């Protein structure tokens, strides 16, 4: 997330979230996967771990290109640039199986349309290619495009075991309830350059200064923040709280391709105030809001 206006960086992230079926063994936990194994997984994605924070319920990784969150049976990977998150799926599934999780109950893959899709690499050269790749692993997956395909849009691919009558070797227990979960994303472009100036090392000394001066620390005040300021510019942060909820913000501040993403799974009955606070913090020229909730929320 660094550089000057003579180069280009694709700020829009590819977001991958996987839930595994709960097991009868309390020791089964994705957080038992070693850091070296995660580094191997991320090498398939073309990114690396920069910083790490954790509490009793969630592990949070700041990456060279965005973030990864690991809970007991949920895994989230969010990566920007020309990363290849789908390439790590086979390895991730093998590691999960070694740690007790052999059945995926839900998978979500989503992203905004890219500014320069021609710069992406296989299997991310287009949504059709991404869907074809995912279908080889999840033959009952479903794909969607929301918005205008030739202007601004948001792509979504989902797989849910509840959509299937049978999975290989397993009967579906349709009485199983999933945990309540919700995610809001705010994807922003054409940001106010005064707001973006805070995320440049020419103007600020540290990530913590950028976090406080921008007002990021006030968006969800009960979060423990792990932040990073890139050289010469760019910013990432993860926040986690004692409930196991997370927030994450990633900022590409360069004027020609400025981009900010905000994401959290904090449960709220109304997101209006949160959306307004995020928009007032970064002052985008345009933005997309997505809210995803399962039927139990």
TrEMBL record:
Gene Ontology MF annotations: adenosylmethionine decarboxylase activity
GO cellular component terms attached to this protein's record: cytosol
Pathway: Amine and polyamine biosynthesis; S-adenosylmethioninamine biosynthesis; S-adenosylmethioninamine from S-adenosyl-L-methionine: step 1/1
Keyword flag S-adenosyl-L-methionine: yes
Signal peptide: none
Record keywords, A-Z: Autocatalytic cleavage, Decarboxylase, Lyase, Polyamine biosynthesis, Pyruvate, S-adenosyl-L-methionine, Schiff base, Spermidine biosynthesis, Zymogen
Catalytic reaction equation(s): S-adenosyl-L-methionine + H(+) = S-adenosyl 3-(methylsulfanyl)propylamine + CO2
Membership in a protein family: Belongs to the eukaryotic AdoMetDC family.
Name by which UniProt lists this protein: adenosylmethionine decarboxylase
Organism: Drosophila pseudoobscura pseudoobscura
Gene, per the UniProt record: SamDC
